[in-house]
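Tip: read the tokens left to right.
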């Protein structure tokens, strides 16, 4: 039997995927969002550019985004046929390794088909598609332009019974009753403060300061410049702590994002932007910047650092309340993990409700169940950031040993497709990082490394795209 009503605070990707899952368990699902949202999706981003408009609550929507393979699997499970529908609408697609040029630590990983689909889209367009699906579900109600004030509880504050909201311009609060309230409000979640006000202990926070900044610009890009790829990603390294990405998008556009840490941010003027791109570890992004036509001015988005709220360590937590997405853990967006992790969390929430229903739902058990879901991307993101100069991460003997192993792995993955595939499966959250230590992989990583310097011979040449994988420069 379905339960009566759930309230989802926040209508971004985490909130939409969670609402889709909750629709299977509740008669009514109310999504509360401060921005005005449309549930329309024309499917043609050229004819209806509103589907590319960035809303106020998601300023990072102007920048490069991606769904890892694990995240796209969730979308496909919740909305069967979604991949085919998005591709038919003009979203660029390809193989997650064969058609994405991934460069890390100065190496370009060997590109071979791995049998997993990747899509390259703008964040607003994906949200528009998901809203059209979720808003059309029976029993889903959307309250837009509404401020989220807090949560309502019983007298003893042992159970959350709803949410307090306020219409724009109104003077009175409105209580929206619910059997389950889900906080999907993102990085700015006020749940820790709400809990403290109710007499609960605030969750312990883990943080890693990086002072990252994205500077992005849209371009008219000839897809031939990418030589069959749908995206190019250059990650930072200890030797060159900068990165950049080129991602083809719907409507024949591409977004080019440059990023750096600890104040080393790309300039917003045209000449400075181009110069910054030329100083990336590899030239692929700069080549496309120089050969393409800008469609707008560069815009900046700052990310202070990764933050994880350790609700899984709490001893007490009110019934009828749960936290998901960036409100639970906010990852460095450079690794592209946030939307995918939120999707997996939504599925786990559905499994928990199947076990016990709203009455038997135990948020603390849920937080502990999703701890491994968060542990892996958290380890990838913070471990990678800790290798960058100036980032105050772990510097113990174990970390140094892991980093030395990864240095060799990146070099081997430049020419060894077995290692490259294994690394891709880990970064796409399909396998745990421990998979890179399996004997079959470790034997390849620890064998003598073939180091080849990049000399530009693969630029724009289909016949040689994997003949000369880039080495350190």
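Filled-in amino acids:
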């Amino acid at each position: 039997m379905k339960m009566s009503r759930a309230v989802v605070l926040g209508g971004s990707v985490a909130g939409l995927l969670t609402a889709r899952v909750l629709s299977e368990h509740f008669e009514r699902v109310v999504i509360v969002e401060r921005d005005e949202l449309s549930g329309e999706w024309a499917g043609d981003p050229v004819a209806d550019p509103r589907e590319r408009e960035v809303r106020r609550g998601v300023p990072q929507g102007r920048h490069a985004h991606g769904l890892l393979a694990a995240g796209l699997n969730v979308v496909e499970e919740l909305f069967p046929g979604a991949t085919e529908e998005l591709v038919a609408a003009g979203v660029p697609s390809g193989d997650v390794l064969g058609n994405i040029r991934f460069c890390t630590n100065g190496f370009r990983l060997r590109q071979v088909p791995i049998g997993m689909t990747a899509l390259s889209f703008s964040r607003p367009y994906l949200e528009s598609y998901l809203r059209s699906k979720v808003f059309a579900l029976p029993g889903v109600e959307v309250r837009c332009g509404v401020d989220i004030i807090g949560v309502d509880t019983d007298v003893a504050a042992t159970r959350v019974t709803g949410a307090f909201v306020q219409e724009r311009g109104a003077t009175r609060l409105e209580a929206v009753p619910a059997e389950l309230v889900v906080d999907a409000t993102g990085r700015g979640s006020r749940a820790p403060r709400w809990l403290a006000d109710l007499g609960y202990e605030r969750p312990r926070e883990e943080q890693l300061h990086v002072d990252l900044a994205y500077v992005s610009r849209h371009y008219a890009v000839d897809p031939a410049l990418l030589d069959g790829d749908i995206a190019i990603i250059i990650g930072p390294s200890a030797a060159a702590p900068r990165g950049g990405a080129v991602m083809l998008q719907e409507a024949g556009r591409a977004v080019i994002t440059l990023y750096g840490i600890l104040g080393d941010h790309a300039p917003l003027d045209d000449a400075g932007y181009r110069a910054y791109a030329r100083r990336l570890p590899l030239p692929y992004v700069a080549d496309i910047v120089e050969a393409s036509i800008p469609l707008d001015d560069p815009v900046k988005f700052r990310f202070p650092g990764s933050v994880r709220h350790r609700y899984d360590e709490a001893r007490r937590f009110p019934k009828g309340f749960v936290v998901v997405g960036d409100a639970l853990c906010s990852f460095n967006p450079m690794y592209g993990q946030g939307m995918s992790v939120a999707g997996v969390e939504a599925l786990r929430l559905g499994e928990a409700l199947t076990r016990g229903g709203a009455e038997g739902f135990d948020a603390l058990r849920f937080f502990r169940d999703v701890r491994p879901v968060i542990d892996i991307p958290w380890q990838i993101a913070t471990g990678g950031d800790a290798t960058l100069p100036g980032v105050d991460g772990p510097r113990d003997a174990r970390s140094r040993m892991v980093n030395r192993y990864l240095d060799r792995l990146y070099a081997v993955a430049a020419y060894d497709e077995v290692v490259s595939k294994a690394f891709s499966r880990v970064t796409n959250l399909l396998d745990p990082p421990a998979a890179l230590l399996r004997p079959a992989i470790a034997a390849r990583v620890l064998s003598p490394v073939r180091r080849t310097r990049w000399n530009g011979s693969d630029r724009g040449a289909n016949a040689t795209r994997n003949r000369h994988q880039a080495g350190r420069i």
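The chain is about 30% helix and 25% strand. Residues 453-457, 459-473 have pLDDT under 50 and may be disordered.
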